[in-house]
Amino acid sequence: MKRSEEIALGWSYIAVGVLSLIFNFLVSFGILSSKELLANSSYKILVQINLTLLLETCIHMLSGFKSVTLINFGWLGEELMGAIMNFAWFATMTLTLLLALDRFYTIVLSRKVHLTKWIMIVGLRSLTCVLSATLS
Question: So where does this one cross the membrane (predicted)?
Fold first, then answer.
């Protein structure tokens, strides 16, 4: 890859990352400041997904910065970035599954069985924490 292409790619990572951070922050702030939205578990899960996307975005922006400036973070820096990215990706995927299950429960299953829903949510979150800690 030509150096000019590396620089363009790096700047695109940074630009998309900045826009992503701004919009994810605005969405999360909007959800957290609305009692109506916070009453719905799907929106709580969306805020958690936004937190994991924040981690992913920061790592991608660092990668873009690295491409533009040719800074070498060394072995430890690379491993740390990879571990954070892997953790954030896995957390995003499991939270996306949780959101899908929450939507399935809300749309398909009865809303009267709250205990089942909370058992499912707590169980999946616990599984997510254990798997994330184990795999990272």
Answer: 12-33, 45-63, 83-101, 113-135
